[in-house]
Structures are given as C-alpha cells and as structure tokens.
Amino acid sequence: MLYKIEHITRYSFSKEVFLEPHIIRLRPRSDSSQTLKNFDIDVRPTPIGTTKIVDVGGDSIFLWFEELTDSLEIISRSEVETHRSNPFDYILASDRAHRLPMEYGAPYETVLEPYRIPSSEFGDKFEGFVAKIMLESENSSLKFLSSLTSYINQNFEYETREEGIAQEPEDTLFKMKGTCRDFVVLFAEACRSMGFAARFVSGYTQGDLNNMENYLHAWAEVYLPGGGWRGYDPTLGLAVADQHISLASGATPIEASPVAGSFRGTDAVANIEYDLAIST
Question: In order of start, what are the domains of the chain with their CATH numbers?
Fold first, then answer.
C-alpha cells in the first residue's frame, strides 16, 4: 500500500526559551517491509546545524539552535509504500524455536541481549498474567504471541493520554486500561519473561481513513528465527502487516521517541499540539 503522511508538531512556550539539541525520529524506515519514496522536513525556527545520523533504532535527524524562541514547529511529509500483506510469510528456522522459553543460540543470544532483559522485577500479578497466557499457548512460541496480542486487545480498555511516559506493566495490569504505549510495554515485558527479544516501535497506522483525527501509534516487534523482527499490535489485536508504517524502534519507548530534546528557560511552560494526516 502507498501512503502519504503529513505530520505537524507544534511546541509553544509561555516565554522565550533556548532550545537544546534535538533528535527527530520522524523519517520512516526503509527495509524489506516498507520503502520510503519521498521525505522532507521543515523546522521553525531554522536550526543553525542539521545532520542526518543512523541512530540506534533507525535514521534520525540531529538539530541544534542558537536563538531564543517562543515556539518550535516540525513539519514532516512522507510517501511510503508498505509490502508485507501477509504477516506470517515465514517458517521458524529451528524446531527449538517452536517451544517456550525461546532460545536463540549463538551468535544471536549476545546481539539480542538488550531486547531480552526485563526492565525490572515483577510481582505476583504480572507472573499470574504471563502464566495464564502460557497455559493458553500450550508451550508454543507462536501461540503465545498470538494469545498475548489477543488477550490485551480483548480485556484492556484503551485510553488516550497524549503526554507522559508509559506506565509500568504492573500499573497497566492493576488498572486494566492504558494507551498503546502502555500495552506495548506490557506485551514486551511478557515476551522477555519467556526469553523472546522484543522491542518498542513508534509509527503510524492506517486506521479509519474516514476519521480525520489520527494519532502516533506504537506496537511491538519480536525477533523470530527465520522470520526476523515481526510486528505485533496488542492495541488492535493483530499481527502487523501493510497497514503500519514504522518510524523508529528501541529496547525502551524513550529510544523510539519521535522527538527528543529539551529547553532552557526560567519558569517557562511548554504546550504541545499536533496534526496528522494519512492518505492512500
């Protein structure tokens, strides 16, 4: 599918501030699942320096500024073609990969280690949640991923929370509701507890093209021998195919943040607004 995307992010400040260097992760990835055909970005105020870098989780743009400003506007326009109509177009490369816990073997164990380490110790509620999914999956790795995706989609309430970091998995389990980023963190931690390498992905999803209100979206990718990084969207309850457009990924949500930076200004308060248009 061919998508055209215009994404406008506006920061307004209560008084003039100095903008520290920013990292912009709004350039869609170009890989076997999607091809970036066109991309341009406009930043106001104009930075005095710009460099394109290959970041940990994808291509990024590093900006720095010199003037005081009461606003920051970032406008990105992309044209992306997605290719993966079938999210299950692979076979697992070894018999061992079919069973839990997942074991990758050398040299993948070392390379994937940052994506396999749980973020913290979890309590009985989390362990009970994972045990339930494991029981339903009958010790099958692929059934575990499918059951986990479906369970979060069917049993948790979605809420819109535009700002703030992702909730801890235990908090999401206690509230039984959250945003897409909360569900992804819960999903990833459950996967890691079973030995999977899992990472957080930020990007866009087609959604309802008749709905003018769109939001940035988040989902997870799990590394599967023979399949590589494969996407799972617990918010929508599906394996990721050609209706998702990836921007950046990381072991944590912070590493995939579309815009990262700070400002200096005594008692200055920031407000954020954005507009996102996606068309085919």
Answer: 2-83+257-279 (2.60.40.2250), 95-241 (3.10.620.30)
